[in-house]
Design brief:
By secondary structure, the chain is α/β, with parallel strands linked by helices. It is about 30% helix and about 15% strand.
Length: about 475
């Protein structure tokens, strides 16, 4: 029987059929961060359970750590006890912790693929909704809640109901100025934030196959923003070339065996999906969100939508979003004044993202009224960017060069956009208050964010070059 990529990984990890559609899955990797990692390990211990396979669990502090240059674990006091708990509990069980300032530290969804912890065909979980990011490597990755995390730490298994299968295909070549961030925002704009509910999404098509790995990670990162359980891209030679030689990737004969297995994973030609959606890349332009949901998105050269002309069931939400964002319908969104620019997060903080932003910032100067931060996704990316001189490009353009971490993506480390201020952000959520109470967030690609910093307003990156 023909099977999809998702079916093949799922079937290979089922331990037991629990009935009523639920199964017990083996979990190959559990990733921990400071917000919930120490707490979950402590709770499992209180219940009398120790991790059965600590070698399959890895941790890194990212959510509550300050990204201020020269930071320590005391720079943001509320984060210190969380890191202390994480250090104590991981040390107790011999779990590898990539601690602050160490090689391997960074945003959990950045360092997993970077270190080769994330492998095709594996199951991976983390107590963070954007764990879908790892699907860009051909892994089946779930963001899980606190009780599920405790269960997984105690048993290396997880109870799940099998999602339905959704294939989103992007056909054609990427137009000038269009990135993976624009692709996924365009898709969410077309299908809505509830379209993926109860589904596992496979991204396919010629445009996806042409993407490098870091772009595939960005594509899968926002899967959760359309309500889906997980997102995936089939592994191929691009995946294997990225993984070869990574710290935790298989080596020697094991590598050969692994690649041979990975080549069996892509969806069979005649496999069926429960839902299909295809996008012609000729219709995709650089995107910018205008409201308070990722589905509130338009091409940067379009006018701000008029709720009176929108779907009746969405008019109230559109009106509320425009009030919060302080925008008028019908006006061009390009040229809207910007106060802050944030380049970072598990969506867009990788070296290719920083290179793209630096290509816009190079030789230019940010607008005086804009505060612009660049926050690398990991220690390794920070060091690579500095070796390439990207940090100097940003600093000379007036941007702040920060330490790795989640930072202003969700503002859980105290780094916030002030109330009423407008931000262009490369992160994944523009919810009310996401970047701080009263903050107005517009999601965009790294190049678009850098262009906004230079212009002091929402700008079309295609006009800057």
């Amino acid at each position: 029987m023909a099977r999809t990529l998702f079916d093949k990984i799922w079937d290979g990890h089922v331990i037991a059929d629990l009935g009523n559609g639920f199964v017990l899955l083996h979990i190959d990797r559990t990733l921990l961060h400071d917000m919930s990692g120490g707490k979950a390990l402590a709770e499992a211990a209180e219940k009398g359970y120790a991790p059965p396979q600590p070698r399959l669990i890895y941790g890194t502090p990212d959510h509550t750590m300050s990204t201020r240059p020269g930071r320590t674990d005391k720079t943001y006091p509320p984060g210190e006890p969380l890191l202390k708990s994480m250090r104590e509990t991981t040390s107790k069980y011999g779990i590898k912790l990539f601690d602050l300032g160490q090689d391997g530290n960074g945003i959990v969804h950045v360092v997993g693929p970077e270190l080769g912890l994330t492998l095709p065909g594996t199951t991976l979980v983390c107590g963070d909704s954007h764990t879908s990011t790892h699907g860009g490597m051909g892994a089946l990755a779930f963001g899980i809640g606190s009780s599920e995390l405790v269960h997984t730490l105690a048993t290396q298994t997880m109870v799940q109901r099998k999602p339905r299968r959704f294939r989103a295909s992007f056909e054609g070549s990427l137009p000038v100025g269009v990135t993976a961030k624009d692709m996924i925002l365009h898709l969410i704009g077309e299908v809505g934030t509830a379209a993926g509910t109860g589904h596992a999404v496979e991204y396919a098509g010629s445009a996806v196959r042409s993407l490098p790995i870091e772009a595939r990670l960005t594509l899968c990162n926002l899967t959760i923003e359309m309500g889906a359980r997980t997102g995936m891209v089939a592994p191929d030679d691009t995946t294997y070339e990225y993984l070869a030689g990574r710290d935790y990737a298989p080596k020697g004969a094991l590598w050969d065996r692994a690649v041979a297995h990975w080549r069996t994973l892509p969806t069979d030609a005649d496999a069926e999906f429960d839902r299909e959606h295809t996008i012609d890349m000729r219709n995709v332009a650089p995107q910018i969100t205008w409201g308070t949901s990722p589905e509130h998105v338009i091409a940067v050269d379009r006018a701000i939508p008029d709720p009176a002309k929108g779907p009746e069931e969405k008019r109230a939400a559109w009106e509320a979003a425009l009030r919060y964002q302080g925008l008028e319908p019908g006006r061009p969104i390009e040229g809207t004044n910007v106060d802050w620019v944030f380049i970072g997060s598990c969506t867009n903080s990788r070296i290719s993202d920083l290179r793209a932003a630096a290509s816009i910032a190079k030789g230019r100067r940010k607008a005086d009224h804009v505060t612009a931060w660049v926050v690398p996704g990991s220690e390794r990316i920070k060091r690579q960017a500095e070796a390439e001189g990207l940090d100097r490009i940003f600093v000379e353009a007036g941007f702040e060069w920060r330490e790795p971490g989640c930072s202003m993506c969700l503002a859980s480390n105290g780094e916030r956009v002030p109330p009423g201020k407008r931000s262009v952000s490369t992160s994944n959520r523009n919810f009310v208050g996401r970047q701080g109470p009263g903050a107005r967030t517009h999601l965009a690609s790294p190049a678009m964010a850098a262009a906004a910093a230079i212009k002091g307003a929402i700008a079309d990156v295609r006009k800057i070059g």
